[in-house]
Structures are given as C-alpha cells and as structure tokens.
Amino acid sequence: MNAHLFVLPADQGQGLQSRLQQMLVGLIFNGHLLPGAELPGARAMAKQLTISRNTVVLVYERLQDEGLLIAKPRRGYFVNPALEQTPVATGLSHAPRVDDPSGGIDWRRRLRLFPSEQHNRNKPRAWRDCRYRFIYGQLSCDLFPAEQWRSCMRAASSGPMSREWFADLVDEDDPMLLAQLRQQLLPKRGIRCGDAEILMTLGTQHSLYLLSQLLAGPGVRVGMECPGYRDAVNQFALTGAEIVPVPVDGDGVQLGQDSASCDLLYVTPSHQSPTTAILSQARRQRLLSGPAGPLIIEDDYEADMGGQALPIPALKSADPDGRVIYIGSFSKTLSSGLRLGFMVARPELIREARALRRLMLRHPPANNQRALALFLAQGYHDSFVTRLARIYAERRELLLNAIARHLPDCDAVSSMGATAIWLKCPAGLQAEGLQGIALEHGVFIETGAPSFFVDPDEEAERYLRLGFGDIEAAQIEAGIELLAMLIRQQLRWASEWPY
C-alpha cells in the first residue's frame, strides 16, 4: 500500500483522533482504500504519522463500530468488503471520462440562468493568508465568545430542551427565538411586531432571494443604491427585473425621479453599503411619505455596531403603511458562518415567504435557532456587541489616523458604528491591479469596481473598502504604511506608462 496516502489533514482546531478519522474516511470514500483493503497496523500507522498507537487503535475501533472497517483476529483491520455494494465503491466507476468532462451534455443550451457570469465581489481565498487583512464582514476568531456560545449549544442539546427542536418543524421557527427577537432585539430598532410578521432565514442573502422571487421579475423596476451591495443587484437581476442605479452621496441614497418610478427600492440606511453614509432624517421622511411609493427593502446589516443604540431608529419603525420590508442578520456580530438572519414584514408577505422557504429548505437548523435564542436570553449577545463596538471604535480611529498620515491624498469616509472605511484614491489608480499586487505583499483590500458599481467607469476604479473586523489594532499602522507604498508605486507606473 502506498504510504504517501496517509497524511493527516491540516490542524484546524481538531484533535488528532478527528483528523485521523477524517483522513481514513476520505481515503475510503475517494476510492483510494477499496473494499477488502488491509490497513497498516496500529503501530506502523502511529510511527508514520508521529502519533500515539492508542490514538490509532481508538480510531480503528470507532470506524469498525460505524461499519467502515472490520477486524480480523491476529491479522488486523480491513475496509469492510460489504461497501463494495454501496455507492462508496461504485460511484467513481460511473464518473464522466476525463477527456469529456461535460458527459456529452450541452449545458450551455440546457441552463436557463448563468449566475457565475455575473460580476461579484472579488474576495480571493488568499486573503486568509495575508498578514494585514483589511477585509469586511469577517470577525476575528479570538473575539468570538466561544465559551458562552458553547454553553448555549450544550443547553440546547440537553434532554428536555433538545426534544423541542429535534422533531421536524416543517415551516415553523423556534418560538423562543421569535420571542427574543420581538422582546429584546427589534425594540432597540424601534420595531414592534408579532410572530406572524417574522421569518427566520439563512442570512441576508436568503432573505433577498426569497424577496426577489416573490416581488421581482420582467417588467419590475428595482432601484439599487450605486455604489451598493453587489449581491443584492445580482439577486434581482437574475429574475429579469430592470435594475435602476440610484446615486448615493454623503446623506445616503438620493431620492428623485429614478427612485420614485421604481416598484422596489433596496436601501441600507443605517450605514450605506459600501460608503457607510447614514441616511438623513429629511430623506427618511420623504422616503416614507404616503403609501403610493415603492416597496422598500431595508437592509439593516450593521444595526448593532453603534454600541447601545443608533441615533436614528430603523425605517421600519416609522412605517405607517407596511411598505418597508426589514431584513437583518447576525453575521456582522456573531459570525458570517452562522448563517442566521430574519425578515420582518406584513403577515401577507411573510406567509408567502414562509411557503417558498419550505420548498427550498423547510426551515433554518432548529438547533442553531435554539442556541441563538439562549444566547440572546442570557444577555450574552448584548454584552458581546457592546464590547465589539468598543473594539471597532478603537480600530476605526487607528485606521483613520493611519490613512491621514500615510495616504494624505486619499479621502476616507466612515460613519460612527461602521466596520469599514470607504477610501477614494487619487486619479489614475487601478484598484483591481492594486489588489493583486497587495496580495503578494500580504495585504488584502477590497476594490470598489466592479464590486459595488452597476456600470463601473474610470472614476469607480479609484475606490477601495478597508474593513477592520479581522485585523488587530497593532497591525493597522504597518498595514496602511505598506499599502501607501504600493499605491504610490502604482500611480508612478501609471504616470510613466499612461498607455
């Protein structure tokens, strides 16, 4: 047997037993260890992987209990021959030939949609390896309240409580979580509602998808902030709706003839994405005046980052006609990987969104809903957000000061409570080219174009977004100093070779 097959996966916080089990299961399911194949003895495996023999024995026994291995007295462990009759062994034999990866199907003709061809935010995986990660929407792992979250997960998994979520909820949501949202979270944004007006989702993306399917389509005009949230643009564009770019300034989205003629208007009033501008009170009043205007989708994605309260409540709180559809998530506080969000709207819309969600996935994982409910009920969320807001305020101030020192020719904008800075660089900057060069030097930045502009022009190429959720305060100064050097270098090249 090839010894090179036995390599432990990278350590991602797992124990040795988990990593060894992952390696062996992967080899079996990938066809490298065929049914009936003999595994190395526990002593030989332990020596090759530099781990203890007991670790190997425990994993072998566990896989035997799970039916993947069998033990033969005085001979050792073997891959269970019974697997030969399962897809584990036979699946690979039916795979398409390497020289015909399409399997002979003209997928271009069969597919009705091509979402992979849309412009999306450029977030190469290499950002994880950068020393200076000015990435937006990512929380430093060391900030996550792991102990409190584990406590809530354990409580949710206890005997009496686990019975409440273990059964299929079909299209319902956890009643404890709905109660916590109604009684604790939403009132801070000035929103009062009943259970029939709330739907749990798998984050903001899921909410937007449901709304795009229910409300948009050919002939529907959808107003989108420009610059704005590209994923929202893409969601509604897939339906065939007409996307209407609505300009943004320092007071948020500009209301005019374009926005008034829309059927739907997507806005981020608390912190405009990506400029962080807060929608002015005058524009809020104008947006909500009268029932004849467009339906408004309010994405309150950074509502908690202002500390105890934001100076201006949510649009939904002053919505007398039910035109505002409020969506939020826990991605910016707890974790973008948690994938739990919510939608608040009139019961008529929530009823249809719930029915559509059932066709997609029935409901978000009920165990995570209950753990989150406990996290809110125990006060962990409030205390964590307060601490996080304080940390982000410090990082924001350090970042603005560093930009003022090292990039004096750039205009930096960041409202209080925002978790990123919108940076306008001197004319001649080519942001996408800069991003690639910066990655090579261990600096990650997000580009303004094409990430946030519907129809990017030369002016859009000058913008960058610098997040500070996943960079330590001590690294900010050095990261901006290095970025400033790379920007000056690119601008010098542009002046020397203008064509």
TrEMBL record:
Domain of life: Bacteria
Keywords: Aminotransferase, DNA-binding, Pyridoxal phosphate, Transcription, Transcription regulation, Transferase
InterPro entries documented for this protein: Aminotransferase_I/II_large, HTH_trans_reg/aminotransferase, PyrdxlP-dep_Trfase, PyrdxlP-dep_Trfase_major, Tscrpt_reg_HTH_GntR, WH-like_DNA-bd_sf, WH_DNA-bd_sf
Residue intervals of the HTH gntR-type domain: 14-82
GO molecular function annotations of the record: transaminase activity
Gene3D superfamilies, sorted: Type I PLP-dependent aspartate aminotransferase-like (Major domain), Winged helix-like DNA-binding domain superfamily/Winged helix DNA-binding domain
The keyword DNA-binding is assigned to this record: yes
PANTHER family: HTH-TYPE TRANSCRIPTIONAL REGULATORY PROTEIN GABR (PTHR46577)
Protein family (similarity comment): In the C-terminal section; belongs to the class-I pyridoxal-phosphate-dependent aminotransferase family.
Protein name, entry field: PLP-dependent aminotransferase family protein
Native source species: Ferrimonas pelagia
Top-level taxonomy: Bacteria, Pseudomonadati, Pseudomonadota, Gammaproteobacteria, Alteromonadales
